Write the structure tokens for this entry.
Amino acid sequence: MIDLVLVSMPDSKVTDLEAAVKRIDSGSSIAMGLALEHAIPFAAGHELIRQGTDDLTLIGPISDLLFDQLVAADLVDSVRAAWVGNVSAGTGYNFRRAVEAGDLTVENHSNFSIALSLKAGAMGVPYLPTRSLLGSDIFEENDQLKATEDPYSGDRIALVPAIRPDWTVVHVQRASPYGDAHFWGNSGVMIEAANAADHTLVIAEDIVEPEVIKSDPSRTVITRDSVTAVTEVPCGAHPSPLAGRYNRDNDYYLDYAKRTSSQEEAASWLDEWVHGVSDRAEYMEKIDRDLGISDPTVAAEVEYGQ
Amino acid sequence: MVSESYTDRELMVAAAAREIDDGDTAFVGMRLPLIAFQVAVSTHASNALSVFESGVMRDEPASDFLHTMCDLPNLDGALSTTSMMDIMSRLQRGDIDVGFLGGAEIDRYGNLNTTRVSSDSGEIRLPGSGGACDIACLSQRTVILMPHEPRRFVEAVTYNTSPGYGDGGNWRDRESVPGGGPDTLVTTKATFGFDDRGEMYVDSLHPGVELAEITEDFPWTLKTTAEVTGDTISRTDPPSTTVLELIRKFDPDGFWTR
């Protein structure tokens, strides 16, 4: 074996959450909540609210609560998504109120059209074709979606244009200081979005030695060349679940639905749960619920080597 | 053995479970269909698979209650936890035998609306499609579950989120919508089929429901199976004791089914 002697090290991208989120300018487009109800970067969303980063365009397949919270904080100009609400309770009242008042522009998608948009962005192509959408009002009312004849079969087919977000924000189990991330559990459109964006912010439960990442390269879903900053925030995805780390806090979703049906109530909820806590550690102390894994499943050992 | 006492939603889950054949790959999504799959794979459909747009694929029930498809019991012991692109590609290439849908509104030709509805006070915004449009366009067939409420049955949907048979006839072919379209609608009062032109007809009535009670819920003259197949309208089978026990095992507090 060749003895490697490294005379220099790659640059660390580690920063704290406040500094990382400060890099996101008002007016940015941000993709987040990309693994659907799983691994939603709530800590980053709450920091955006604390910093008052506004005029945002939010991009995602479904948004389970997080977009509703950013809309409640009046930071959002437009949403490009397939579904926005609260999966436990149905309605996201702030999203609904803003749309009905004409304060929020919505580009309606299906889950697949958002996935294809981000995939096209990630692949560096202007669009991708699909057999979905045709016949729906999602297709009919969006001028960006086109129908064309497949030049090979002659079939009528829909085209979905690429989306390249300014920022993609993801929450993962662990990452190296260089930005290489391990993630397990369902990923939704997270990987496509990370590769489509100009900048990706990786929020990790743990920042680990680079050797940990390289010990299992098949679990690496995002690599450092796509990553702008890395931040360690334990429980940063709460109240959403994170595979192997913590369960979904369903009571929180039900409580949010009960307490945010009017604008005044939503403001008071934000005061208590976002503005009223200085950071994630204080927030988790306030949550005070046991969401830990009671019966862990340990994966069969995997060997690499040479 | 037939159980004596069950809720409307438990009956819907039992009916939905019967729509999953052994060996089917079912696109399940959330709520009642999720429980229906767990019942089906535990009883008559041990070779069925479930897929979820989050990227989860399973061959057996989750070992604990699920509020959402991404709850950890649904990920734990999954066959695969992958990406949405993987799952939607299965749908697009025609590998999904049955997809489940719901909606705020349904019309005569099985088109569904989950985007926005009109009311006296103006427009009401709903959460949107999620994966429903894709399931409606691309599944080999779809099964629709909805509470039986007259306001949900409309002549034409306000917004066609998830296409059924459009305005009927060969509409899906004309619009290049490849999947098979709606096969069955299960409400809390009856089950419905769709005729050759894609028009809804009542197929079976749930126990205790009479035809006259439901026809007035529809703003058009509702067809019955007698006009379509020549058969008389049947009674929906109530859930068996075994099925009911399973539903209550998978939803022990009745969060979704009571």
